[in-house]
Amino acid sequence: MVSRVEPTVSTADEPGDDTLLARTAQGDAAAFRLLVRRHLPLVTRVARRMLQDEAEAEDIAQETLLRLWRGAKGLELGPGGARPWLARVASNLAIDRIRAGRNTTVTDEVPEQEAPPSQLRALTQAETARRVDQALAELPERQRQALVLFHYEGLSQVEVGRAIGVSDEAVESLLARARRSLKATLRTEWRQLLPDSDSGSG
To answer: Which CATH class is domain 12-103?
Structure first.
């Protein structure tokens, strides 16, 4: 099992992913632990955003990193290091989980008793988040993958393309269609989902 660890900021003194992967391929557990420490937060976030379920996301993160350990000998990394590969595996595993119908969405019930303003604000925010998550879940799988990796995880369009196996132009098209769908579905809430996007894009 891969234990939960806090992210570590990479420094010039640390070996790159390619070096760590080569050591991992030789059975170096310490090198693998450093890869886990470096990339587990990303993998967990991708899975969580795709599934909206913490336990499911942790399962996906475990499986993704175990696949890295098992497949280290045959894996070739590009200029983005292990990040695009891990993002692709995590998002594909999440889609498999969605297709299997094993993920569940839990929503809070509105309390019957009178609630103070702070609680009402929290309920409003929770409802907005629920609507955003629902709209995201209704997107076609490739659009959702592109959106999560680009807007939430900060991968470049080129990195997203490598992660999901399409061209840079295809990523741009996927993002544009996803934004249009979300804008139509959410209207005012869509800006919360895409805080850095240009209001005129798509």
So the answer is: mainly alpha
pLDDT digit string, tens, across residues 94-150: 888 877 764 444 444 433 444 444 544 454 556 666 777 777 778 888 888 888 888
Domain with CATH 1.10.10.10 in the chain: 115-202
Please list the residue range(s) of the chain that carry CATH number 1.10.1740.10: 12-103
Whether this model's pTM surpasses 0.70: no
Q: What is the pLDDT of residue 26?
A: 93
**Whether domain 115-202 has CATH 2.60.40.1120:** no
What gap in Å lies between CA 25 and CA 18, rounded to an integer? Answer: 10
C-alpha triplet 66, 72, 73: angle, nearest 5°: 145
Angstrom distance (rounded) from CA 12 to CA 21: 17
Instruction: Determine how many CB atoms are found less than 10 A away from the CB of residue 79.
Output: 9
Nearest to 149 by CA among 128, 178, 126, 187: 178
**Separation in Å, CA 187 to CA 134, 192, 199:** 14, 10, 11
